[in-house]
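Methods, example record. To illustrate the input and output format used throughout this study, we show the complete record for histidine kinase. The sequence lines were provided to the predictor; the line carrying C-alpha cells was produced by it.
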Amino acid sequence: MNRRGPLSERALILAPIGRDAQIAGAILREAGYDSDPCPDLPALARELDAGAGCVIISDQGLHRADLAPLDRFLKNQPSWSDIPIILLSLRGDGTEQIPAAGKLAERLGNVTFLERPLHPASLIGTVRTALRGRRRQYEARARLKELREGEQRLHTALKAGRLGAWTLDLPSLTLHCSDSCKAHFGRGAEGSFLYADFQDSIHPDDRAQVQAAFEQTVKTGTDYAVEHRLHWLDGSVHWVDLRARAIRSRDGAVSQLVGVSSDITARKRADFERERLLNELAAERAALSDLTATLEQRVRERTAALTTEVAARERAQEQLLQSQKMESIGQLTGGVAHDFNNLLMAVMGNLQLLKKRFRDDDRAQHLIAGALEGARRGASLTQRMLTFARQQELKTTSADLLSLVGGMQDLLDRTLGPQFELRFDLSEGLPAAQVDANQIELAILNLAINARDAMPDGGTICIGLDKAAPPAAKGLKDAEYLRLRLSDTGSGMDGATLKKAIEPFFSTKPTGKGTGLGLSMVHGLAVQLGGMLELESTVGKGTTATLWLPIAEAPAEIPEARPAPAESGSRAIILVVDDDPLIAMSTVEMLEDLGHQAIEANSGAQALEILKDGQAIDLMLTDQAMPGMTGLELAEIARKERPKMPILLATGYADLPASQIKLPRLSKPYLQTELQEEINRLLDGAA
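The corresponding predicted structure is encoded as:
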C-alpha cells in the first residue's frame, strides 16, 4: 500500500465479514487518508501498538469475539492517549444491533456510532473529526514532554548555581523546600522544615524586615526579595538570600510564592570585613589629622598599607567568585559531555555494525563513512568539554616533545596553507615531558588554528621549545618545566578580550566558525597535567601562548606499533550492564557480531540477580554512572559472588570515586576494535 503519511495518522479497519473493509478503505483512500485492514482483534491490537489515528470496527467484528487484546491496549494507554473508535452498525438498528452497546461504549472509551451502509460523506467527516481529536492528543503528549524537559533543565540550573528551591502555599502557610534549600537553613535532607521552623530561625533583629517584605508581596503581588540573618540549630549565625515570584489564583489574590534561596554568608562576611577595614582606616585618618607633618608620613604609610590590604582582599574575593563560577560551569559542561558521549557510543557502535553488513555496497559505505566522521567530530568536541571540566581520562607517559613537535610539521603545513610561514626554535638535549602525547598534539593544533584565524592575510607562526623555571607568581612548583611557546604576528587581543580568552564558549570568531572551547581545552589540559597555560597579547602585534609542562622522571618512552586485535579463540558469555537502553543494545549488537553471547541488564540490581541465579558468565562489562548503584559498587559486590570473573568498566570520566578494587577501563565512546581488544586481553588473562 502506498502510504501518504505516518502510521500515527492512519485508520485501522476491523470488518472481517462482508465488504465493509474494502468499501471503507476505498472511501478513505479517495479522500486522502491512509488505512489498513485487520483480519481479527489480535491483529488489530498489534497494529495499534505500531501507531494509529483512529479505529473503525464493524459490529460483526465484535460479535462473540474475545476483547482481551483490545482491552489490554486501551488499559495501557498513556495518560495523554484516548484512541478514537468508530463503531459501524446497521441502519435503523442503532444500539439494538449490539444488545450491550451502552456497556460496550463505556468499555471502549472514545466511541462514535456510524450506521451502515456507509455513506462516504458521513464516514469521511467522522474520520476527519476523530483524527483531529487524535492530533490534539499528540500535541498534549508533546507539551508533557516539553514540561518534563523543562523541569530537568531547571533542576540542572539550580544545581549548577548552588540554589535551593522553595514554595509557600497561602493562606495555609504550607512550606515545601528542596534539600539544597534546607541545607541553607542548617537542616538535613531527611528532616521536615515547616513555616514555623523558618520563622524561628530568623534572627530577632531581622524579623520585622522579613515580615514587612512578606506582607508587601502578598498585598501587591510584587516580587519577594530579602536578605537576612538566621540561626542554625548549632547556634551559628548565617546569611540567606530569598527571592520569589507571587502566583495569583483566579480571583486575583496571591495564592503562592515560588522562589529560590542561596547562602550568602561568605559574601556578607567579606563585606563586613571590608567595611571594618574602611572604618578603621577612616578612624585612623581622623585621629592623625591633628598630628605634625612627620606623623603625617606615618599616616600615609599606614593608609597605603590598609589600602593595599583592602585591594588584596577584594582581588582574592573576585578570584574566589570567578573560581566558583568556572567550577559550576565545568560541572555542568562535564555532565553534558558525559551524556553526549553515551549518545555517540550508540551512534558509532551501530554505524560500525552497518559498515560490516554492507561491505559490497559502495554507496552505503560512503554514507556510513560520512556519518562516522561526523560522530568522531562529536566525540572530539566532547573530549574538549571534558578537558575543560578536567574530567577527561589522560594517558600520561614520558614523551619526547622535541620529536613530537618536529613530527607535526607536515600536518601543520597542510592545515595552515601557503600564506603562512612556519618557524621552529627548538632547543636540543631537552628532557622528556610527563604528558598525554595525543592531547598535546591536539593542543598545538588548536593553538596553530587560532593563530591562523588571527592572520586573515597571512603571517608568521613560530613554535619554540626550551627548559625554564616559571616565576613564583605563576603559582607552579619551584622547579624547572618544559616551556612550549606558539607566537603569531596577528591582530592580537586587548586586555578585556585577553581576560576572557580561556572562558568556555567565549569566542571572537563569527557564529559557526568556532566552538569557544579551544583555549578552554588547552587550559584544562595544562592544569590537569600539573602545568599551566599563559597568554600574552598586544593589539596589532600578535599573541604568544605558553604551555608550562612538567618534566618526566624517566626517559622518553618509544611508542610501539599497536597491532590489530587478534581474533579470540573462545566465544564468551558476557554480561552487559548499562541503564541506557540505546547503549546496552548497541554494545550487545557489537558483542554478538564478534561471536560472543551477550546478556543485557539495565541496572546493578538486575545484574546481581543474574549472577546469583547461577548463570554462567565469563566476563562482565558495566557502565559507571548508573542510578541506584554505580559500576564500582556493583563490581565490589560481584567480586564476592564471582571472585575470578573479569570485570571491565566503561566510562567517560577520568576521576572516579575511591574503591576497594581497581578495574580495567574502556573510555567512551569506544570502537568495536577497542572493545574486542580489551575483551581478548581479559579473557586470555583469566584462562
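Annotations derived from this record:
Residues 92-99, 561-566 have pLDDT under 50 and may be disordered.
Residues 399 and 560 are 13 Å apart (CA to CA).
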